[in-house]
Amino acid sequence: MKKLDFLNRDQLQIIHNLGKVRNTNRILKELSPYLESFREEYSTIYYLNSEGRAYVNSNKVRRKNPFVNHTILRNYFYIFAKKPTEWTNEVKISDGITTLITDTWFKAGGKYHFLEVDSLQKMKENRVKVNNYKALYTAGHLAKHFGYFPPLIWLTTTQLRKKQLKELCKELPCAVYMIDEIK
Fold this sequence. Notes:
It is a single chain. With 183 residues, the chain is of the alpha/beta class. The protein is built from eight helices and eight strands. The strands form two sheets. A five-stranded mixed sheet has the order 4-5-6-7-8, with helices on both faces. α1 (9-15) crosses α2 and α5 (123-139) runs parallel beside α7 (159-168). The longest helix is centred in the last third of the chain and has 17 residues, at 123-139. It is globular. The model has no long low-confidence stretch (mean pLDDT 96).
């Protein structure tokens, strides 16, 4: 939770190989002095409370907010990508000309990747972000530094948005997934 902020029971169960739901619930009950939780749609979301943050030496205070679902979707991709060891959220990327904040910067298969989660934002915001990625791609500084331009991966919730994002990113090394495809 220090690394991924908010997790639901199913994600905790998969990430930590906790076995059956009953065992996962038992472990969560034992950890309850270190956790806070709340219900979101059909699942319970867990995060570290002040005692939990002190125990794992984390200074990042988490609170229930409108972006929790965004974080939960991002964490499903973390599991799908086979839990990369190099995984950093909300990273500022700049080539000196163009600057953007990517949802996640991670390394998988020996290459770095950008991950963007499209859950609540308007398509106009996505266009701006894609244009920033295109500017980074065209400038070529990242490709020169890494020997390749890190692929952009989008995670979205509907078929229509997947189609729109694919069209926006056709000039970039890009892949678009729907959450149902990776769960």
